[in-house]
Amino acid sequence: MDDKIEVTEENFGELLIQGLEEAVAIEKGGLRAAQVRRRKVTAREASVAPPPRYTAVRIARVRNKLGASQPVFAGMLNVSPSTVRAWERGAREPDGPTLRLLEVAEKHPEVLTGRVRGTGTRER
């Protein structure tokens, strides 16, 4: 039961209106929403690539891309500012879950920047 509809310039408006009408009907209880079934992915079926290695230069680049000071970046990652300083000096290397979190910060910075609240005392 995989009814695919090709969307074209000619039918886009009609399909959009139809979709909105269905959404309203679902909200009013006139239609049942589609059910989504999630299937568990097991280790037999999939593998997870390891996170990349983060050098001092790469960590500083990620932080600068986010426009964050070391203390703010530390807060985003839930580590101490001294830890970030040590990483950026090359005195320590991140490991474990922090590597994955740095990967998220690098590839999807909005995930972390959305958690930062400004004080409103300074403009950029």
Description:
With about 120 residues, the protein is mainly α. It has a domain at about 55-115: 434 Repressor (Amino-terminal Domain). Helices cover about 50% and strands about 0% of the residues. α3 (about 70-75) packs across α4 (about 80-90). The mean pLDDT is about 90.
The total strand number stands at 0
CA distance, first residue to last residue: 53 Å
Which class best fits the helix and strand makeup? Answer: mainly alpha
**Average of pLDDT:** 90
> Would you state the CATH class of the domain at 56-113?
Mainly Alpha
> Which fold name is given in CATH as the topology of the domain at 56-113?
434 Repressor (Amino-terminal Domain)
Q: Give the helices and strands as they follow along the chain.
A: HHHHHH
Task: Give unreliable regions as ranges.
Answer: none
Share of helical residues: 40-55%
Query: Biggest β-sheet, characterized?
Result: none
Shape descriptor? elongated
CATH architecture of the domain at 56-113: Orthogonal Bundle
What is shown here, in short?
The chain is mainly α. The protein is 48% helix and 0% strand.
Write the layout of secondary structure elements.
Elements: H1 12-28, H2 56-66, H3 70-77, H4 81-89, H5 97-107, H6 110-113
Which short descriptors sum up this protein?
single chain; 124 residues; mainly alpha; 434 Repressor (Amino-terminal Domain); elongated
